[in-house]
Amino acid sequence: MAVHNADIASMFNRTADLLELQGANPFRIRAYRRAARTIADLPQSAASLVESGADLSELPGIGDDLAGKIAGIVKTGRCPILEQLEKEFPAGLTELLNVGGLGPKRVMALHTSLGIDNVDDLRRAVRAEKIRALKGFSEKIEQKILHALETRGTQEKRFKWIVADEIARPLAAWLSGIAGVKKVVVAGSCRRMKDTVGDLDILVTCAKGSPVMDRFVKYEEVAEIISHGTTRATVLLRSGLQVDLRAVPGISYGAALYYFTGSKAHNVAVRALAVKRGLKINEYGVFKGDRRLAGRTEEEVFRQVGLPYIEPELRENRGEIEAARAGNLPRLVTVEDMRGDLHAHTKASDGRNSLSEMAAAARALGYEYLAITDHSRHLTIANGLDEKRLRKQCEDIDRLNEKLKGITLLKSCEVDILESGKLDLPDSVLKELDLTVCSVHYKFDLPAVRQTERIIRAMDNPYFNILAHPTGRLIGEREPYALEMERIVRAAKERGCLMEINAQPDRLDLNDIHCRIAKDAGVKLAISTDAHGTAHLGYMHLGVAQARRGWLEAKDVVNTLPLKALRQALKRR
DNA sequence: GCCGTTTTCGGCCCGACTGTTTTCAGTCG
User: Fold this and answer.
1) Can you tell me which residue has its alpha carbon closest to the C1' of nucleotide B5?
2) Each residue's pLDDT tens digit, A346-387
3) Lower CB density within 10 Å: C or N end of chain A?
């Protein structure tokens, strides 16, 4: 059984949880968590690295010890230190760490004093009012635990970026109407454009925070006030989204924005740089002793630690700090770089608009071209096109292109990849298209090896151009299908195939990590909206955001090219 | 457990809020 990076990361995170319960050295715990992240973000499988004899201790945050443990896990599937720790604690105990308000100290107190071993035990003890009597606890804390159990459960809920954005906009507008508020900005993972957002971090500047916080907790969407101080307050909205509001004076705007944008791992790493320079960074500024050196803008903060500005999308401590120091930061692709969209549907299959409506909408966005990619026949539920209907559509496009000014429609098709790896339409019609966009729409549950080989076989077809929504995930609804992404990427590179970043808000597929894997392998990408109506063409910025998070530059993305160069880039080798 | 222009030991980011607390521990981000 192959060991996946996610398995190793999960073992290390679990080890860290148990070490926390044990009261181990916090830095040792952090080392396990950092290693878990490094492995989870790795562009190749750790297993293949181990097998090829690579030195894992070269990886950031992984030394000789953890490199040895990783090798052990790859070879045996087991992690002795984890197994040892698991013997020391009941299996359900770490789940208690996910209950709001409970950390390692309180969990251990509950365990040793009341024999609470899992969430069910906790629930019973709360109901029996046993917890209030414990030292360091109280009736109030007991009530908070009960409340956390009832309302928030133990599973973290994340929101699709677009949903969080829809909630943030009216809230930000409302906040900016509060007396004394100058700037309002959404920071956190929303600003970093992560595909999902766990909570909203909003920053305001004002002379006095207290009245702003008092107003904030009265926002009409607030379901619950979690904390309420003078410079910071946390609420739960009716939507279930948690919002942290922080207030700082204008002179600290840049430092606070930088601080609250995160990520935490990025901030920790940059602060460590500051410490080496004898500086201290906090949300109020950059300080040498008591002297403030910077804070009004983010650029000032970066300058003080000797770094150029790092775009929010890159701030994940995935090498951006090292790249910044070396002057190697990527010049990230922007929405303005995009010259066309390579995945769009019309009424012919399951879209809402006609060819000419889609063309007009694309031209209004300033595009040079738009690929019409209605579904192929296998997707009957979407009224997929057979050979005859596709030929007819091509004729329609040819005729329309003669009339259109400023935009060219490209003849294409979203061709189903059949279970056998064959494409859903014969080569005789595929060769007449400007390009193909190929995707998996059924049999999601094949084992990784078979799914991978299905896709690679499809890529063997000389008319295969772009692998659309390569993992098939639907955020919050459907997990990505099992896939050996490195093999897919390698196969794409060898055959001159491209991969898509699908910009639909519930897909965002490839994700940021996979984008980076593809880029590092030299595979070109297309950022496409998979529009099923004219309005969807506006999702481009979501795909671009994931591309930016994956370090992509305009030169990595084919639909930044003018039409002539695009045609060249689509040619298979 | 990692790491090194502080290099094989001794550091490791920093502050706000809560609740129980007479000065701080725990949790969170």
Assistant:
1) A276
2) 999 999 999 999 999 999 999 999 999 999 999 988 899 999
3) N
CB A435 within 8 A of CB A395: no
Provide DSSP, A504-518. Answer: -TTT-BS-HHHHHHH
Q: Which residue is nearest to nucleotide B21 (CA to C1')?
A: A136
Q: Please report, rounded to whole angstroms, the spatial distance between the CA atom of protein residue A354 and the C1' atom of nucleotide B22.
A: 74
Backbone phi, psi, residue A159, to 5°: -110, 145
Q: Give me the CA A255–C1' B22 separation in Å, rounded.
A: 35
Half-sphere exposure of A446 (CA within 13 A, CB side): 21
A23 CB neighbours strand B below 7 A: no
List, for residues A191-221, the tens digit of each pLDDT value. 999 999 999 999 999 988 889 999 999 999 9
Phi and psi angles of residue A235, each rounded to the nearest 5 degrees, phi first: -130, 160
Residues 159-188 of A with CB under 7 A from strand B: 188
> How many whole angstroms from its chain centre is CA A9?
17
pTM: 0.90
* Helix A80-88, helix A5-22: angle, nearest 10: 40
What residue ranges in A273-312 does DSSP mark as E strands? 280-282, 285-288, 291-294
Place of tokens 């992560």: A194
